[in-house]
Write the structure tokens for this entry.
Amino acid sequence: MYLTAPEDLTSLLGEDEPAYRADQLRDWLYRTPVLSVADMTNLPAELRRRLADRHWPFRLEIEQTADDRTTRKWLFRTPDGAAIETVLMGYPKRTTVCISSQVGCAMGCTFCATGQYGFERHLEAGEIVAQVAYANAALRRSPIAGSPDHVTNVVFMGMGEPLANYDRVRESLRRLIETMGMSARSITVSTVGVAPGVRRLAAEPWPVNLAISLHAADDASRSEIVPLNRRYPIDDLVAAAREFFAAKGRRVSIEWTLIAGKNDSDRDAAALAGIAGRMRAHVNVIPLNPTPLSDERPPDPSRVARFVRALRSAGITATERDTRGRDIDAACGQLRLRSARRTELPDAAAAPR
Ligand code: SAH
Ligand code: SF4
């Protein structure tokens, strides 16, 4: 039912149902989501039966938990066989869901499991929003101890490049904010650098957060690990990010996945500090989560700490982002890679690293 726009639910119900049914249904889908249509208690039993197999646009295939059950990772499967990864993370004051915007990704970043797999298809707006609704429904049934019992934050940091699926992502933002009632300020769109998409997002009415996955501070080295950089080089991206900041008054953040020997030197930190200064950005440093199809490794913890210190002493606010759920294939794309490896990947790709 999430594939139907919230305004069009009446059409799904048929002419015999009273007009208020669509409102009731909309509430069950967006305001107080439940895992099963059977729990939509104010709908007549006959209607519930009729809607039962249309509730979710996917089914749950794998659920894994980690970090003392404060992290839950789901692999959903759509009727056409596409795999969608979603991760729910509980913290003391927030519950964050990391959602996917595409099945696979066409951007081909070398260190990313999703990129290594390639692009399969875009996700529909309804498939994007349903990941958040599912997380809310799951939390209502079993909350994470010590965390809010509903999703407080959404990050587009799962599979896919959200700004390469602009219109559907835009529609998903509209539904999250206007139908589900989330605050735009609690939503973060992460992009590898689709500069025109950043400009379009800057012109939207909602003050969402923007994260730029930078990973390298000069065009030659960035193009090596982020192929899209050849199309939208760093200066273009910085200009777009500055426009976003000017339009929204929201500080942009830079994501920097630290790769040993690639982008973890003192010089890299100094160059990054320069760019972060120009963007007035905060920096999130994420030690690389190794992926099966690449030899790249994270630096050792002392190097990570030194990198963060170097940024701070250059006057940049920087945090080392925790790598939640390492033991459950945390970097998005990895659960899918593993579940697919059994059947879909060629033998060479399936070889142990
Ligand atoms: N396509 C978007 C959003 C999805 S990736 C983007 O690239 O921003 C979300 C974040 O995870 C990005 O910052 C990306 O660089 C990071 N990431 C991808 N693979 C990773 C890995 N193996 N280890 C650590 N971070 C990774
Ligand atoms: Fe796509 Fe982001 Fe992975 Fe790059 S890092 S391949 S843009 S999902």
